[in-house]
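Quick look at the format.
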Amino acid sequence: MVRTVARVTTERAISTVVAADDETIARAKKGDHAAWRALYTAHAGRLLVWLRSLPSGDAGVSAEDLASETWLTAASKIADFRGSSDDFAGWLFGIARLQARNAGRRTSRRRTAPATTEVLDLTHQGHAAAASDVPDSERWISWVLSHLPARERQVVACLEVVGLDVASTAAALGMNASAVRVAHHRALKKLRALGAIEAGAT
């Protein structure tokens, strides 16, 4: 009897890991603050790392800004979300990808004649080091990923940097699972040639 009560109590508790708990999503849709806190705890950190690993195209739009907009959009659209807590990461990161793309488009529309013709290589480690608010590891990751095409960079960032699975990565990037695996394989091959990862790494 005690074991049964303990099991029921555990099932009702909201896990901050948010593995495959459909109840968390259902409660989040009803505006439950604890459910949102669980989702935020599970995904906010890696969402921010992922956004920092991608070029924003606009120095005035920070990864923190994009992450905030992503969570606000997710909160407004959660009623339309269909899936489990396992699926939430792919959905959330997909929103973030669109937010980043829209920010880049707004920047392109605002851009006029350049103030200088000098070209700065902001992917160089020397320039990245000036951003003291970003950890060294994240600056190094951004520098490494800058050597990859956009789609491969996004796939590696999802799979290797923040630990999404293939299904969540596919959902986040609007790709199918096979395309994710192919892009991942090609990216790792390029990074090995660059010397950024060991030959045996997968």
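Next, a different chain entirely:
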Amino acid sequence: MYNLLLIAQWILCILLILLVLVQNGKGSSAGIFGNSNSDSVFSSPSAATAVIAVLIMIVSISLTVLVSRRGMDSVVDMQIPVAASQPANQPAEPAK
């Protein structure tokens, strides 16, 4: 379930980025090329942008709940074991 939600989160984020990049700005219709309404679907923020944004929030909250129930540790809290071959107080030998 966690992996499925994580993949869905990535896909939704990419879709939202692409949707925002395709949309025209507010002042783009006042340019020298005139006011063409042929691409009116992408001329203003649409309901699709809001729907994808809400879905991203829902999936993010779901992922947070799943991670808290699993008891996953944070990457910051993980302790990496020190290699036993090199003592911590001696510098490494230079390569030849």
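The chain is about 45% helix and 0% strand.

See the schema section for token definitions.
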